[in-house]
Amino acid sequence: MAIKVLIIDDDERERIVLRYIIEQMDDVKIIGEATNGIEGVMLAKEKKPDLVLLDIFMPELNGIETARRLRELPHPPLFVFVTVHAEKAVEAFEVGALDYIVKPIEPGRIRETIERANKSLAHEKYISARVEDKLRERINALLRSMRREEITYAKLPIKERGRIILLNQEDIVYAEARDKKVYICTDEGEFASTYTLNQLENRLDSTRFFRVHQAFIVNLNRAKEIVPFGEGSYMIILDENDKQIILSRARARVLKKKLGI
After folding, report:
1. pLDDT (tens digit per residue) in 96-127
2. What single DSSP character describes residue 105?
3. Comparing C-alpha atoms, which of 20, 23, 17 is closest to residue 2?
4. Domains and CATH numbers, the chain
């Protein structure tokens, strides 16, 4: 991807020279030019350049103050001073300049600076990607931890005849939607619930329970066999009275991937 460059200089001849040198380089694109600091900051805010080449003494806003404002942007670019005033180098580096080039401009010197900018940008992207990866890992670990805690300590409450029965998830063999209700089958019998299958799917341990189709969720730990049923579909046989549940072709692909088969 080409590095995006913005030029800020009130001297048109110097802008022409910079533009000519940069246009000879691969993977570099000039996205704008400004004749003063205020215009330059506004362009930088709009165009989001990777690198700004700017003069020190300019009307409206000098280069040092322009650099300070560039650093305050939501996407602050790298910046390099290109000027005839060598005495301002210390001040320029104090505000965070990547480089300080004294005119007259030499093409080789500009190329070196562009290469430095490329390396700096690549390093920033690498660090940003690493931070993002680490943050994503921590978020995923936290979500897994929260999920495990919910599974470990939360039982499934079932209302029955004015009382609330707390079912252990491992005791659930399957859940079935029929006759506009959802029934939960356990080793102790069948319970009518007020849950929908979607609610149960979100509540039950996803590492153990699997939605085989719209009407059934099964406890895979209670499945003893998966047998072909024709045309790409399968039958899951549970260890509860050899209960047989058809697994659709689409869900069969998902289950195979889940089981690593």
Report:
1. 999 999 988 889 999 999 999 988 888 777 77
2. P
3. 23
4. 3-128 (3.40.50.2300), 156-259 (2.40.50.40)
